[in-house]
Amino acid sequence: MSDTRKGFGVSRGVAVGPVARMAAPAVVTPGSDHSGDGTPAERSAAAAAALASVADMLDERACGAGSDSADVLAALAMMVRDPTLLSAVDSAVGSGASAAVAITTAFGSFRAMLEAAGPYFAERVSDLDDLRDRAVAKVLGLPMPEIPDLDHPFVLVAHDLAPADTAVLDPAKVLAIVTERGGPSSHTAILAKSLGIPAVVCVGDGITVADEDVVLVDGALGTVQISPSDDEIERALARYRSEVEEARRASGPGRTADGTPVKLMVNIGASRDLETAAAADSEGVGLFRTEFLFLERATAPTQAEQIAVYTEVFDEFAGRRVVVRTLDAGADKPLEFVRHGQEPNPALGVRGLRTSRFNPCLLGDQLDAIAAAASKSSADVWVMAPMVSVAAEIREFADKARAAGLAVAGAMIEVPAAALRASTILEHGDFVSIGTNDLAQYTFAADRMLGAVGDLLDPWHPALLELIRITASAGQAAGKPVAVCGEAASDPELAPVLVGLGVRSLSMAPSAIPAVRTVLLRYPIDALEDAAALALGAEDGASARSAALSRLDRDRAPIA
Ligand code: PEP
Ligand code: MG
Predict the structure, then answer these.
(1) Which of 78, 105, 225, 231 could form a disulfide with 216 if both were Cys (CB 3.0 to 4.6 A apart)?
(2) Is 487 within 8 Å of 184 (Cβ atoms)?
(3) Is 202 among the residues known to form the active site?
(4) Which residues are found with C-beta within 5 Å of the ion, ligand 2?
């Protein structure tokens, strides 16, 4: 049997193909490289040539980019050509540094200057780090830390992917994604699912595959088989085909075997998702992540621009519901035009709805733009605030939304305080939607971006299930809808348990809907409630999962 690595399967599907590795940035310390060979003049020249080639690459990309991105790229190219940077390189070389160390040192002093120059410049620090890594890779003759640009399809293997990497990923080329780090609710997971690309994350450091090695990736099982046999490939593909075939036979609104309705909705982000999302057999959009539209923007979108993009989405979903989440800026999704300085703990800082304390016009403008687009459309438009912690926040948000002409306003439940007091949130909001990605992050105090603590973010853990139960009960008591729109909703094993906990709407990547619809059709609601009760009573995530699945196995019925 071939060598197999196991991780979290975060996007279903089976793919087989040659590996292309995305290089990790080189870690440079004095004496750790050979770019110190040669005279000081040669070392300076090598460093200058590496910087020039990075600046040229930026100029080239600026030519092919839209006007906003082109401005950013051109500004970065100017930074790399700045004579102060070059003289900092020369002076480090003069003190005996290698070319790579001199580049790192020079960028280090630039970095400190930017950080000290105020919040706007501090936001550019990560760009600077990226440029440094590229220049260092160039001078050391190492592969660039970027998504490979090949003329054939490949399985992308990376240490981890940043939102900026995933934004430039070409779905026609990438057969599957494998990352050594990253958790089940990382942006790699969200993006892979939205593009329908099979993905396995958190397979552990040092996966021993080289470029062009063939791997078999199973996004449902969370496995990566290195050099699989023909037999192994055939078996995996056959299993996947039969799963797809079975899912194709079911259609229409979600429901349990005995007819309890469960809305199946789609999550959307960047405009490129739109057509696939609209074509999916769903009751509408349960989460429209509006910040994804503006990740690359240096300046806030105007009202007219916003009205145009929202109108496009509402037109695609004419006659269906669209839940628009206002900008969830900050932490893992920084927006350049929503600035609030450096924070020691951005996930606990000014993010989501909290940004409106400092930038109320941005929220006001967005609500007006959503209302203007909604007024011309037959979509049933709801608005929702991200990162609500206490009732006063949703009260204020709902007042603003209604003043803008939006009749239905709700809150995301992503913070344990909001889940525990969902009843008070629902006094002011018309509905809630549980963001299990952030709710897990804050419940387990484990950064969702950090693979090292990814195992703690287990959506099966009874602590998280209990918060979902409390929220769902509050919704039932208030007679108001409770949805789940985090990644947990798209897991065909966990989704039935969420319904058993009282959730009646599940929003997920379009590619995940068929499998979730199929599994719900197999069980009556009381079996789902039993499974949920067993999971709640378990000690940890693994035993919750096995208790729920064995209960469900008893009632598993063929789809009527
Ligand atoms: C969540 O936190 O579960 C969620 C849906 O929001 P996001 O992943 O965009 O933070
Ligand atoms: Mg969230």
Answers:
(1) 225
(2) yes
(3) no
(4) 414, 435, 438
